[in-house]
Structure formats: structure tokens, C-alpha cells
Amino acid sequence: MTYDGLGRVVMVIPTYNEALNIEWIVGRLRAAQPGVDVMIVDDNSPDGTGDLADKLALDDAQVSVVHRTAKDGLGAAYLHGFQVALDAGYDVIGEMDADGSHQPEQLHRLLDRLVTADLVIGSRWIPGGSVVNWPMSRELLSRGGNLYVRLLLGVRIKDATAGFRVFRRSTLEAISIDTVESAGYIFQTDMAWRTLQAGLRVAEVPIEFIERERGDSKMSGAVASESLKMVTRWGLRERWNRLRARTVRR
Ligand SMILES: Nc1nc2c(ncn2[C@@H]2O[C@H](COP(=O)(O)OP(=O)(O)O[C@H]3O[C@H](CO)[C@@H](O)[C@H](O)[C@@H]3O)[C@@H](O)[C@H]2O)c(=O)[nH]1
Question: Which family, according to UniProt (predicted)?
């Protein structure tokens, strides 16, 4: 099935212990966008999410499942799913969480904008975007993290850490996903940064992000500190490269 003007679209949904959410979110996505396929990438969740995903795939030819052997991080799960989607010939490959934070009913905003962009991010931090039910600590972490990314990397994106996105196939091909190494949530920033560095168009559209009601977030101190370290390293490397280029020109 296809989405008008964009070709074949698949939304990749990574899961780890999302048994309480997976049927609900896939049902909503299929109802909201019947032309869009779904690929669940499960890291052998102990709560049986993988089995539930298999049942969904059995009942619906537009749902597929990638089973991985163990929990290996959000970024690693997405990269695996992206490669499967590229091999399957999809024209547009998207990302969203399994827990209802990203609303399938708002996916059309991202897809419509992709007609004139290479990556579209559903943004919480542009006018019209919002967050529902996040504790102040989480909002500060996200706003502060995004400010740090803007300052260190010099990018204009307001929500570079967001996980509701759609990529053109050509974007994933241009940034050579087999060279991406970030395994945790910093993967989101890494992909946006690589897209900009490849000279491609990154657009943001406002979304309402709703904190999950069932199951637990996998965000942790280790995930946040990995992000801080990586952004600092990229920022310093970028400055060093610019300085060297200037010195060589003189
Ligand atoms: N397969 C797999 N899935 C994972 C893993 N870690 C997390 N996930 C899945 O990835 C999705 C997001 O994980 P959450 O732990 O629910 O994320 P969050 O705290 O709500 O984080 C949100 O904010 C982040 C920072 O802005 C975003 O990067 C993230 O995408 C999301 O929108 C969920 O579907 C979850 O099951 C993993 O190691 N493996």
C-alpha cells in the first residue's frame, strides 16, 4: 500500500516490554493510516511482546516483526529495522514509540511535510507542539538536552532528540546507516545531525507528545550521560575540523 505522492511507507516501532501497549498502538496506527505498513522490532522482551507482535502479523499482512536476541538499545533496534525496510524496498521509513507518546492520528502531519523535505521530525518544542503529563524533571532534561545540541553542534533543530520521524529512503542511503554507531537514545540526535551534514532538508512539524500511561520508560541516567558525552565529542570534533581547515587555507 502507498501514501499519496510518497510511495510505500513503513513505520518502525521498537519494543522492549510493551505487552500492555503493542496491540493498542498498532490498531490505532492501522486505523489512522491504512496505507502505511508497520514493522515491530522486538528485543526478545521477557513480557511476551514478541509473541503478541507475531499474532498481529499473522492477522494483518501489513504488519511484520523483526525479532532480536537481546536488549541492545533503541538505536541498534532502529538501525536493524531500517536495513530490513531498505532491503524490502520502502520509499519512506518512519519511527515511533510503542507506548502512545506519539499519536498515530498525527502521522499525516509528518508525511504531508515530507513531500518537500528529506527528514521530518514531530517536534514538541516548536510553536504548536506540546508535552502532556511529563514531570518537570523530564521536561528540563529534554529542553536542556536540545539547547546543548543547538549550542554545541550549531544546528537550528528545536527537537533533535525526538523519536517521531519520517525519512525518505534516499536520506537513509545518503547517510550510510551502516556507519552509525550510537546505540542508545542519542541515535535520534546522531541521525538528525548526519542528515544536516549531508546537506539534506530537515523539517519540524508540531506534535502533542503524551507521556505513557502503561509500562515503563527505558530512559536512564546511563542513557542521558551517553548522550551528553557523544554531543560534546561531536561538537569538539567539528570545531577542531573547522579550525584545521582555516589554518590549512592560510
Ligand atoms: N527494541 C528495543 N526497543 C527499545 C529499547 N529501548 C527502548 N525501546 C523502545 O523504544 C520506545 C521508546 O522508549 P521509551 O523508554 O518509552 O522512551 P521515552 O522515555 O518515552 O523517550 C522518549 O523521549 C526520548 C527523548 O526525547 C526519545 O528519544 C524517544 O524516542 C521517546 O520519544 C518504546 O517503544 C520502547 O519499548 C531497546 O533497547 N530495544
Answer: Belongs to the glycosyltransferase 2 family.
Q: Residue ranges per domain, the chain? A: 2-249
In this structure, are residues 50 and 42 in contact, taking their beta carbons and an 8 Å threshold? yes
Q: Which CATH architecture has domain 2-249?
A: Alpha-Beta Complex (3.90)
Pocket probe for ligand 1: among 22, 72, 74, the residue whose CB has the most ligand atoms within 8 Å is 74
Q: How far is CA 167 from CA 46, 65, 239, 243, in A?
A: 30, 20, 28, 32
- The set of cell numbers assigned to 138 is 523530564
SS3 for 41? strand
Q: Is the pTM of this model over 0.90?
A: yes
Q: Cα(73)–Cα(13) distance, rounded to whole angstroms?
A: 13
**Residue holding cell 527528514?**
119
Query: Would you say residue 1 has pLDDT above 70?
Result: no
